[in-house]
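Re: that chain you flagged

S.,

Sorry for the slow reply, it's been a week of failed gels. I finally had a moment to sit down with the sequence you sent. For the record, here it is as I used it:
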Amino acid sequence: MTEPSPGPWAYSINAIYDNIVRDSNNFVICQVGSGFNNEDIANAELIAAAPELLEALTLAKGAVEWMAGATDSDPEDHELLEVVNKAIAKARGESDETQN
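Prediction finished late last night. Pasting the structure tokens below so you have them in one place:
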């Protein structure tokens, strides 16, 4: 996997009302919509949180693996581990779901 731009990322609205997400070096990651559309703002905020979300999920994966590996684990633990693994793979570009 090619490493993504360094986090944390930040969301802002620029002088012409573009919703901009920038990395920690102030480089533009993306522009989401235009103006003060609430859905575009929510999407930009979610994208800006991506590095922290991936880090948190990666850290939580160990606990989920432990829960799923316990002899008395619930089937939901295995389902949760599958969801965690799929989300991490998608974020890292290692999933078919990231292709158009």
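What I noticed first: The chain has two domains: 10-48, 52-98.

Talk soon,
D.
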